[in-house]
Design brief:
There is one protein chain. The two termini are about 15 Å apart. The chain has a domain at about 1-135 and about 195-205 and about 220-235: Rossmann fold (3-Layer(aba) Sandwich), CATH 3.40.50.1360. Helix content is about 30%, strand content about 20%. With about 240 residues, it is an alpha/beta fold. About 45% of the residues are buried.
Length: about 240
């Protein structure tokens, strides 16, 4: 595990963007796993800037997103397909058919899970997986207590996650209670993982995830066992690390 300290959010974003950019330049047909939320927005902005300057080419890249709310279509402003279109896909030259997000409108959870497993496998696996982490230690929507052996899952969101995400909706009751998510098994099969985190509110959980025991109660803790993971955080997020 490589730990890279950044001064602040902007510095974290630049350092993370450098790793993603290198992946694209070295392997122009890479399969890149993407995440949503506030943590990667700065990274995506930098990738767009580099594309606009002619430094990056996304035409052969394929992407697979971690998760999607069950019940939301890609045109819903709070769907993760909408998020990715807004911050990255619509701003670079990636063919939209090369971008994959779980189908939030699939009502049959078993079919949605099976379909997404087949998509990931058909791509030949993930070269670089970008991850953030929720306040309760979840990655994707793998909430505390989720089995590590799941490849893709339909998961019930915890009260902590619903509370954290309600700011994006008009009211708490509008936050979906279920989501489709790439499971820990699929995440751990990625050839390389890039984990980004910022902010003091996550400092204690970062310390638990990377310097505590591997436990289902802190899903991100399993990442300690990956053989090629880079963790980039700002000073606030790393303020409680024992090193």
């Amino acid at each position: 595990m490589e730990i890279i300290r950044a001064k602040d959010y902007d510095d974290m974003s630049r350092k993370a963007a450098n790793i993603v950019s290198a992946q694209i330049l070295i392997k122009p047909d890479s399969v890149i796993g993407l995440a949503t939320g506030s943590s990667p927005i700065g990274l995506y902005n930098i990738l767009v800037e580099r594309y606009e300057k002619g430094d990056l080419d996304f035409s052969r890249i394929k992407t697979v997103n971690l998760d999607e709310y069950k019940g939301l279509g890609g045109d819903h402003p709070q769907s993760y397909r909408y998020f990715m279109n807004k911050y990255l896909f619509s701003k670079v030259n990636i063919p939209i058919e090369n971008t994959y997000v779980p189908n939030g409108l699939e009502e049959d959870p078993e079919k949605a899970v099976t379909d997404y497993i087949q998509i990931i496998r058909s791509l030949g696996g993930i070269d670089l997986q970008l991850l953030g982490m929720g306040n309760n230690g979840h990655v994707g929507f793998n909430e505390p207590g989720t089995p590590f052996e799941l490849e893709v899952a339909c998961t019930t969101l915890t009260d902590d996650t619903i509370e954290a995400n309600k700011r994006f909706f008009e009211k708490k009751e509008d936050v979906p209670r279920l989501a489709y998510t790439m499971g820990i098994k699929a995440i751990m099969h990625a050839k390389k993982i890039l984990f980004v985190v910022s902010g003091e509110r996550k400092a204690e959980m970062v310390a638990k995830a990377f310097f505590g025991p591997v436990t289902h109660e802190v899903p991100a803790s399993i990442l300690q066992l990956h053989n090629n993971i880079t963790v980039i955080g700002d000073e606030a997020a790393f303020s409680k690390l024992p090193i």
